[in-house]
Design brief:
This protein folds into two domains: about 1-40; about 50-125, Beta Barrel (OB fold (Dihydrolipoamide Acetyltransferase, E2P)). The longest helix is centred in the N-terminal third of the chain and has 21 residues, at about 20-40. The protein starts with a helix and ends with a strand. The chain has helices at about 1-10, 20-40, 50; strands at about 60-70, 75, 80-90, 105-110, 120-125. It is an alpha+beta fold. Helices cover about 25% and strands about 30% of the residues. Strands 1-2-3-5-4 form a five-stranded mixed barrel.
Length: about 130
């Protein structure tokens, strides 16, 4: 046993420092898992927070969900609202939204006229995916 140990020492081999067999496989799998995790965290795509309008833009707006759509009005959380002729409707990205795209269960942020509390003049619609 002494001769074998001496040969390893002279060749610079140290058995304790070598990783072989299943341990090497687990080490490589762990490193790959770490790399994938780091890359997925760095490549975060579009989040729900990115879709939300700026808080200053919606000061004075009410929140709700469209519960029914009628010919000239619609219900938000069970209360009936109309819209002014020059209503401003935007989607969650700030782009103009056609009223024909409204649907039940869409979440909305809306602003009512001061004079008429049941007439909406501005609305931001978050359409379900």
């Amino acid at each position: 046993m002494g001769d074998w140990y001496r040969q390893e020492k002279t060749k610079g081999l140290h058995r304790g420092n070598q990783i072989t067999g299943p341990s090497r496989l687990f080490l490589r799998a762990g490193i790959m898992l770490l790399v994938v995790t780091v890359l997925s965290v760095m490549a975060v795509g579009n989040t729900q927070a990115d879709d939300q309008p700026l808080p200053t833009m919606t000061v004075g707006y009410q929140n709700g969900t469209i519960t029914a759509i009628h010919e000239k009005t619609f219900d938000i959380d069970g209360r009936t609202y109309g819209v002014v002729p020059d209503v401003v409707m935007l989607d969650q990205h700030g782009e103009t939204l056609d009223a024909g795209r409204l649907m039940v269960s869409a979440e909305v942020k809306f602003h009512v006229k001061k004079e008429q509390s049941n007439m909406i003049d501005k609305m931001i619609v978050t359409l379900p995916f």
